Amino acid sequence: MSWLILIIVGLLSAMIGSLVGIGGGIIIVPTLIYFGMNLQILDGVTPQTAIGTSSIILIVTGLSSTLSYLKAKQVDVKNGFLFLIGIIPGALIGAYLSQFLTIHSFNLYFGIFLIIVSMMLMFRDRIPPIRVFQKPQYMKHFTDKEGINYEYAVVPSLAVVISFVIGLTAGLFGIGGGALMTPLMLLVFRFPPHVAVGTSMMMIFFSSITSSVGHIVLGHVIWGYSLILIISSWIGAKIGVKINKRVNSQTIVTLLRVVMLALGVYLIMRSFL
């Protein structure tokens, strides 16, 4: 029974995660906690081991998705590595801080976090671009498959600061940073949705490697579960990328918002039970 649950969790989390650029950690972590701590089906699960195990799985999801998105030219490699300058140290610190979380605090804080980001995405088109991001030396151009032209820009100093905070949440919640990085690329830096997703998956790959080191040292990884999740996640990520290529930009944003809102509400409800 447990292995079947892990296969389904791996497939669905990676498929949804790679489709909207969030990695799947926001699905893996609460699901492992639910089946482990609430239903007692999975042994040895705590908030810390769920987060640590998720970080390992996100390495595989990130790698699988990144390779596919690179082939489709949907990854901004230069700016992606710029974001990593802040994400990597943030992820290490977050991994250390995660050991102080309890099940109720995890559900509450993570749920609120997801709802806030979801609300930000809802009003994305009403938020005017920040002038500092419109300087000519930072501007890049992209045309999606529908022929829509996008202009976006990344200011190096602000990118590092923002990505550090994102890295902190990646290590703290075991989410790879994508749950916040993708919305911020859309909202703040005005990335084209398809490029935001592809670039986010590249950063999830590298940030998950970093945060995993911290969790392995702290003994927060259940290796038996990881093996099953790794295999199913690799397949799920490939499916998610294929679906991404077939849908338009607005659909991706809508899917991301709905997934984050639904999971945020669910986690807050769980925190009071």
From TrEMBL:
GO annotation, cellular component aspect: plasma membrane
UniProt entry keywords in alphabetical sequence: Cell membrane, Membrane, Transmembrane, Transmembrane helix
Superkingdom of this protein's organism: Bacteria
Predominant cellular place of this UniProt entry's protein: membrane
Compartment annotation: Cell membrane; Membrane
Membrane topology (UniProt): Multi-pass membrane protein
Keyword Nucleotide-binding: no
Pfam families xrefs: TauE (PF01925)
InterPro entries given in the database record: TM_pro_TauE-like, TSUP/Inactive_protease-like
PANTHER family named among the record's database cross-references: MEMBRANE TRANSPORTER PROTEIN MJ0441-RELATED (PTHR43701), MEMBRANE TRANSPORTER PROTEIN YJNA-RELATED (PTHR43701:SF2)
Family indicated by similarity: Belongs to the 4-toluene sulfonate uptake permease (TSUP) (TC 2.A.102) family.
Protein name stated in the entry: Probable membrane transporter protein
Organism (species): Staphylococcus felis
